[in-house]
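Write out this protein's structure.
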Amino acid sequence: MSAVFDIDIEELLLWLCGFFGTMPIFMVLGNTFFLYLLMALVLLSLLKICSVKNAPYEFDRIAIPVVIIMALNVLSSVICIFGKLPDVYKDGTVSTLIVDLLYVFFFLLFLPVKRRKLVRNYLKGVHAASLVQLFYCILQIIYEHLTNSSLNETVFKQASWDNGVSGLCWHPSNLAPLFVYGCLMSRSPIIKLLFFGVSFLIGNRTAVLGISVCMLMQLAIYLYVNRGRFESSKHILIAIIIAIVGIALAIRFTTLGEVIRNQFDKFLNKTKSDISFDAHLYYWKSLPELIPVVTNWNILYPFFGVGSGNSGYIMSKTINMYPDIRWVIECDYVNDFWSYGLFGFLARYIFYFTYVIKSIKIDLRYLVFFISFFLMGITYNVMYGWCLLLVYSLILLISQGESMRCDQ
């Protein structure tokens, strides 16, 4: 097999990982396509690096924080396994740890300077997936309006969360980071507006928060960069007015307007009645009072956590929330704190913010993405799976001083 052919396969697997990582609805034998593709990618890349003669692996100091984070992850899992957590948590943290190791291998395998640009193939896959998911969501909305049933239930024989619009995922919040990235990477103003509009129509607060921040920051940056250019600003204003008038007329006088109004009414009703808001608020409010309680269980828990993917155990034991299953708190920051402890939490976010700061002088789109991403983490758990690989890929590009655009 030629080296060129190997490179093509590796680039293809990177693209497929980016594409199918956003679509957990596709599964084989209880696991997602993404997991199988990631295992194949890691194995192929590892064999490829090992097969190069007289070319030792190039370790870079930027990997040190990732190795430290993984070491703390392993330590929290060991504490879980030898602790007093239920068996369902002990068994689950082992499988989660194995997947976490795959993510670290991904970062390390594309760490060598000559290989870092390969992650653009992963970014291209994610961008392609964002467009597919966008138009699939539009199809879901129309199908639901015409048939009063779920397209996912019809096609995949399994309903999405709340039988709502969730793309090729089981929950609409899974689309939030994808739509932010797709909006940021798309050059067409029409596509950007579609991401913005559909985020509202799927009726998910996390998606609305992320896409709103993303759009506002992009607009602010554009106006700042083009300040003083009257003609350019005038044309933009005219285009915005025409777009608003056109959308208003479509909503008022067409069937499309009825579909949009129905979806928007659902969004407002969810916002008023959804009890999950109280649960998410409690995750934050409970931290000061639960830290002493958890310290009494085991003094190591507040510092090193209860194991990867085990944050729900804290709520199960204290307020009897979902006591019979293993689950994760739906908030990135609270989840990371209880899963990995104070040390793991600080290691992660110091690492992330270090590169956010470095990215400002390279490409402001990085800043837009990370601010939107971190704000979404307040209301939901978005830093997992393909999203984590997306962040790792962007960090590798930032370390090279590369633009965020995935078409280079």
